[in-house]
Amino acid sequence: MTYIIAEPCIGVLDRGCVDVCPVDCIYEGPDQLYIHPDECVDCGACEPECR
Asked: Structural domains in the chain?
């Protein structure tokens, strides 16, 4: 299952998860970051950065 960036991160734009993503599937939108579900490899590298 692909990871998602949820409500607590809206308006934050903390790029810590982007720095650890091995496939560059996290993109910046106007008010939050988004994980592209077709590009995510479910590695879990972003999860510890988002706690």
From this structure: 7-43 (3.30.70.20)
What is this structure's pTM? Answer: 0.83
If you average pLDDT over residues 19-35, what whole number do you get? 94
Which residues lie closer than 8 Å to 48 by C-beta, 6 or more apart?
none
Cα distances (angstroms) measured from residue 10 to each of 32, 39, 41: 5, 21, 23
Spatial distance between the Cα atoms of 31 and 20, rounded to a whole number of angstroms:
20
Backbone φ, ψ for residue 50 (5° rounding)? -105, 20
